[in-house]
Amino acid sequence: MLSIQKILGHDQKFYDLLEASAQQADNSVHHLIALLERLEQKESPQSLEEFVRSRRK
């Protein structure tokens, strides 16, 4: 059976970068959900600043 790597002809670095990108997307979604929960509780705009700081880490 042919692997996807052979079909696409990419090396391991491509898949490492793809996996890291997927992890960052997952982290972004979790941060956004947490921010929306805070905003639903009518917390101050400072929550947005915390969100920005958490994404820059």
Question: How would you characterize the overall build of this protein?
Answer:
This protein has three helices and no strands. With about 55 residues, the protein is mainly α. It has a domain at about 25-55. α2 (about 10-40) packs antiparallel against α3.
Strand content: under 5%
The largest β sheet comes out as: none
Query: How many strands?
Result: 0
Structural class: mainly alpha
Helix proportion of residues, in percent? over 70%
* Average residue-wise pLDDT: 78
Helix/strand order: HHH
**Rg (C-alpha, Å):** 18 Å
Pick out the low-confidence regions.
none
Task: Compute the separation of the termini in Å.
Answer: 41 Å
Number of helices: 3
Describe the global form: elongated
Which terms would index this structure?
57 residues; 79% helix; mainly alpha; 0% strand
How are the elements arranged and paired?
Layout (H helix, E strand, L loop, with lengths): L3 H5 L3 H29 L5 H11 L1
Structure summarized in a few sentences:
By secondary structure, this protein is mostly helical.
